[in-house]
Amino acid sequence: MRVVILGGTGPSGILLIEEALASKHVVVIYARNPQKLPAHLSEHADVTIVKGELEDSKALDTALAGADAVLSALGPTFGNPSGTPIARGYSAVLDAMRRSGVKRLIALGTPSIKDEQHDKFSAAYAAMVAAVSFGARSAYKDIVAVGEVIRACEDIDWTIVRVPVLTNGRNREVQVGYIGDNGAGAGYSLARLGFAVFVLRELEKGEWIKQAPLITSA
Questions:
Q1: Number of neighbours of residue 88 by Cβ within 10 angstroms
Q2: Going from the N-terminus, what domains does the chain have, and what CATH number goes with each?
Q3: pLDDT tens readout for residues 153-190
Q4: What is the pTM of this model?
């Protein structure tokens, strides 16, 4: 497939690019600062780089031309600007996907994006979300808005991959479920590599379309 990767210059995004290439996909990296990419990716024969801001419709159209899916490692940080810049960016990306006929989106999320239908109460996750809500209010508001923007898209086959505390471990295996269950919900961390592996597996299998599973390291 030809996949467009957002957030590719961060640690999770770099692993996502590497896994996509290892799976023999053709990769388009859409980045604001592509100079941050390591040479083994920026110079790869199966990589195309398109420079642009998240709300740059012309650059997004260029990146999405001929694409089969969008894979995103974008997420707010503790220094997140006020407002909801990432959610606004996703709105622009989704509009560009419609113009280009791209139907598949797999995007990073966090437990701050609630799933009222499937999540159960977890004191640990409630405390985690509360800490983010009070300590990083802008980031919290942005990621919640991201969930709202994506879930509103009935015409897009989306999956929001909710992740807890990310680590640099090399564990490729993940548990998949919902907050408060006895599987994924019993864990509180995830290796970034596990996120990348899961996204590529979900791209192939499509088991969680229009759902927001929680994944943790197995």
A1: 16
A2: 2-217 (3.40.50.720)
A3: 999 999 999 999 999 999 999 999 999 998 877 899 99
A4: 0.96
